[in-house]
Amino acid sequence: SGTRIAIQKEQQRLGMPADGWATPALLGAL
């Protein structure tokens, strides 16, 4: 879905593994 693509882009921007899942670590960094 478009959401996973957006998550992957944000993960890449943050230097995180871009697996496309909204992990607690990612949500905490937003």
The biggest sheet amounts to: none
**Helix count, per DSSP?**
2
- The share of residues in helices is 55-70%
* Apparent shape: globular
Helix/strand-derived class? mainly alpha
Order of helices and strands: HH
Q: Please give the alpha-carbon distance between the first and last residues.
A: 20 Å
Q: How many strands in all?
A: 0
* Beta-strand proportion: under 5%
Number of domains: 1
Radius of gyration: 8 Å
Described by its quaternary structure, the protein is single chain
Contiguous low-pLDDT stretches (5 residues minimum) are none
Mean pLDDT, all residues: 82
Summary keywords:
30 residues, mainly alpha, globular
How would you concisely characterize the structure shown here?
The chain has 30 residues and is mainly α.
Structure explained in plain terms:
There is one protein chain. This protein has 30 residues and is mostly helical. It has one domain. Helices cover 60% and strands 0% of the residues. It is built from 2 helices and no strands.
